[in-house]
Amino acid sequence: MSLHQALQSAIHLALLAVLFLSPLALAVPSPSHQHDTPSRTRTRLNTNWRFHRFPTNPDNLVYDIRPDHANLSADSLTILKPYILPAANAFIADPANHHPVPAGAGAAANSTSSVPFAQPAFDDTAWEQVTLPHDWAIAGPFYVGDNVPVGGGMGRLPIQGVGWYRRTLVVPGRSDGQQHYFLDVDGAMSYAAVWVNGILAGGWPYGYNSFRVDLTPFLRRDGEENVIALRVDNPVQSSRWYPGAGLYRNVWLTTVGDVHVPFSGTAVTTREVRREGAVVDLVVNVENRGEGRKKVEVVTEVYELDGKTGREGKKVAKFETAAVSLKGAEKKTVTASVAIRNPRLWGPWTSQKPNLYVAVSRLYVDNQVVDTYSTEFGVRSVVFDGNKGLFVNGERVRIQGVNQHHDLGALGAAFNYRAAERQLEILRDLGCNAIRMSHNPPAPELLELTDRMGFLVINEIFDSWELEKNPNDFHLIFADWSEPDLRSFIRRDRNHASVIAWSVGNEVGEQHTDEAGAVVAHRISAIAREEDPTRPITASMNFAKPDMPFPPNFDIISLNYQGEGIRDSPAYAGLEGIKTSPLYPAFHEAFPSKLIFSSETAAALSSRGVYLFPVTNYTSAPVTDTLPSGGGNATSHQVSAYELHTANFGSSPDKVFTTQDAHRPYVAGEFVWSGFDYLGEPTPYYSSRSSYFGIIDLAGFRKDRWYLYQSRWRPTLKSVHVLPHWSWGAERAGQVTPVHVFSAADEVEVWVNGVSQGRRRVGKEGGTNGTTTSSYRFRWDEVVYQPGEVRAVGYKGGREWARTVVKTAGEAAGLRLTADRERIEGDGDDLSFVTVEVVDKDGNVVPRADTGLAFSVEGPGEIAATDNGDATDMTSFVSRERKAFNGLALVVVRGKSGAKGKLTLKATGPGLNAAQLTLRVQ
Ligand SMILES: *[C@@H]1O[C@H](CO)[C@@H](O)[C@H](O)[C@H]1NC(C)=O
Ligand SMILES: *[C@@H]1O[C@H](CO)[C@@H](O)[C@H](O)[C@H]1NC(C)=O
Ligand SMILES: *[C@@H]1O[C@H](CO)[C@@H](O)[C@H](O)[C@H]1NC(C)=O
Ligand SMILES: *[C@@H]1O[C@H](CO)[C@@H](O)[C@H](O)[C@H]1NC(C)=O
Ligand SMILES: *[C@@H]1O[C@H](CO)[C@@H](O)[C@H](O)[C@H]1NC(C)=O
């Protein structure tokens, strides 16, 4: 029976139960219980690791022969694949396709016994001591120039090579009831293999997926020391962006007793969601790893969950107790349903609240709790309407989304909860309500955050299938791992309220291969549907057309750039490559019942605070540095922040808005490429380290584009934003310096040094001529620069609504430090992001300042990273010295683990008054 069938029959049984039982009525009285059980523990295993990176293969171990192994002698290699493949079996539906376990653990021990780093006795004291999450590449140094091992596409950082991580582990004896020990790895980049006391115990190749290794058979008990050795092997040319390197997410030690809920062992779904009530369906997997038969009672209670504190609140329901009898080494599934009265619904933050519940499942054997397993979930209905768009809990919700890569800027791929939360806070301020996880499974904690903060999520797994985008990418292992990776991913993330759809592929090559590609699409989407019959399956299409065999395999039409059209504006006329007019109507006609959204829009490019002249008259033009108004600078490798230029397949925000609005309401919204800048993929300047696509730069500073999106997504927020800055040197005096305004006002008037430049109405007099009129920005393209001030006033219904003044700044005189949080935890994780502004004597930011700055801290903390958002800056992210970029820099401060007290951050720069800021570490 598939999970789908299991769910269906559970639902039928449950309906009966719901009809006759009130939510709190119980068929079986509940045994009294402790809230926590000593038999399940989950501990972060993040400290006391020793690490060493070998830029080239040090041990002749390979998962399998890859193109980058051309120079290794095949005879001397040990291939790990046969020992790793069995880890996939739990996620392969057909037992006939399960991989044999090669002659027990001993075989693997024998075949790797010559590898010193795997052996317990190896002396690793000379290795670096590291704390996880750890990204070995982020400190650099950057590879600069051409013909380097890692170029701009992958972020110019030393991601390649083999990394070994080792640590000891002491566990108690069997008598305490904790009999099974699992290493739970949230992500390891990549081709992870794990040895316990010299024996190869498991692993997982795909660097973005979570996996579990059972340590139990290999552990010495009773206080004896065990050695865990984890090897990752990260290839060059394996990604279109910066992947990070090493144990870059959390690693946990999970202990359970014989009878327990296995990895990703629950599924909670909701249906018949109304204000008065909803039905919750629950599946609990139960496993008995002991020897004798066990009679197990499964008791699950539902509590309200406080999203801020993570604490349980009021109990609201209890599932009927289920009893199940398990032989030794047997697994069974228990299903139940319950009604919740007047549920507090989960919905996206713009208009609804992200209320959550937690289902606490307790397993009892002989009236003793033997396991407690918590599952957070939300009660919500999501309807995907082909004509009217997306409805959450009956309310139409426009998707105001962005794409986010997994890196956290200067902190790299190393996951950090606060850094992720900060990104979401900045996106929420923008008015963003949805995130597409492009193009890989996120850290589990990121989904906890999207649940709690109320973002809708498209959860995506693959960037390539069988056909390669890079020689060493996922296509090498697709045949073996597409099914297990997909099933494991969906089981891990299926209970998250924020996840509304699964994307099984991004711009895969199979779009181009007609029936052959469609066969793969069909297989992959069928697996996803089997794992989760409740959510739609999609794959993002930048090429497949409505009449091709690829799109019908998906439940949602997810378009990258094709919706608003590719290269179809006059400014793109001279470019080669595909040109398509907006395809929203053609897809809607071909698939009238399927929801359509744009999974990638815009691909606009800019460098924060850089303005290049002359300014194009077009609203959307490909960036080039060979035309005067092309928006790019061939010397500085910066792109103009007038926000009119895009990648050569893209469109400005203005053009996307126009097309989306022309095809309302059936186009459900967009995911902008991209929310934040990210490491790698620095179109159009591959000499750089990081992207130009972001609405927000790599340091988290708002580009001008931020205000264009905010004015559309939060139209009631009173704001007029003026660009460019008004602090030009003598060279611009008397020069045409267009003034553009982003505002949700319906009229704006601009004055330069008190002289009105005219009052303009949105969409009418906004542009210079017919081709340039934009309904989404106000522009005065003939303004002539003189130092002084630009004043802008926005009007609604003829009344003043918002105003702003931009003044010419004086000489740089000092620094201003502003922390996003002045109190942080002394836990070795928590961060304060401190913005450094170069200011004149009156406190105005000096918008072109590029002064070299230096930072230091005193007290219980350290500088984790610095940045400035400049895609061309090759200073290491761990440097305490950094130039300001257009007036700003960022210092990320981390509290020391176990420390408390005052921490002082000091910033200095030549010719500037030093500044300091005090933070409290608690
Ligand atoms: C193999 O070695 C040759 C010669 O040293 C070198 O040019 C080439 O880049 C190497 N190839 C790989 C995949 O390492
Ligand atoms: C491991 O090697 C030893 C010594 O060569 C041999 O006796 C043993 O059978 C091997 N074990 C396995 C499982 O291959
Ligand atoms: C924009 O158009 C105006 C009016 O046609 C023209 O005077 C101006 O030179 C153009 N500017 C650019 C940068 O092309
Ligand atoms: C391009 O960048 C170079 C180097 O920073 C600078 O000297 C030049 O003025 C820039 N050109 C324009 C048109 O801004
Ligand atoms: C508007 O400006 C564009 C770009 O400079 C130019 O190609 C076009 O001819 C102008 N259109 C009109 C009607 O003046």
Explain the overall architecture.
The chain is mainly beta. The protein has 5 domains: 3-17 and 261-380, Immunoglobulin-like (Sandwich), CATH 2.60.40.10; 31-256, Galactose-binding domain-like (Jelly Rolls), CATH 2.60.120.260; 421-705, Alpha-Beta Barrel (TIM Barrel), CATH 3.20.20; 721-807, Immunoglobulins (Immunoglobulin-like); 814-921, Sandwich (Immunoglobulin-like), CATH 2.60.40. An 8-stranded parallel beta barrel has the order 25-26-27-28-29-30-31-36, surrounded by 5 helices. The protein has a 6-stranded antiparallel β-sheet with strand order 5-2-6-11-8-9. Strands 16, 17, 18, 20 and 21 form a 5-stranded antiparallel β-sheet that branches. Helix 4 packs parallel to helix 5 and helix 6 packs parallel to helix 7. The model is unreliable at 1-36 and 765-772 (pLDDT under 50). Bound molecules: 2-acetamido-2-deoxy-beta-D-glucopyranose (5 copies). Residues 68, 70-71 line the site of one 2-acetamido-2-deoxy-beta-D-glucopyranose.
State the domain count.
5
The molecules bound to the chains, other than polymers, are: 2-acetamido-2-deoxy-beta-D-glucopyranose
Radius of gyration (CA) equals 28 Å
CATH names the topology of the largest domain as TIM Barrel
The helix count comes to 10
- Major sheet characteristics: 8 strands, parallel, barrel
Q: In the CATH hierarchy, what is the architecture of the largest domain at level 2?
A: Alpha-Beta Barrel
The CATH homologous superfamily of the largest domain is named: Glycosidases
Strand order of the largest sheet: 25-26-27-28-29-30-31-36
Oligomer: single chain
Q: Uncertain spans, ≥5 residues at pLDDT below 50?
A: 1-36, 765-772
Mean pLDDT: 93
Shape: globular
Calculate the terminal CA-CA distance, rounded to whole Å: 53 Å
Count every beta strand, where a strand is a DSSP E run of 2 or more residues.
Answer: 52
Keywords: Glycosidase, Hydrolase, Signal
Organism: Parachaetomium inaequale
Domain Glycoside hydrolase family 2 immunoglobulin-like beta-sandwich: 267-380
Family: Belongs to the glycosyl hydrolase 2 family.
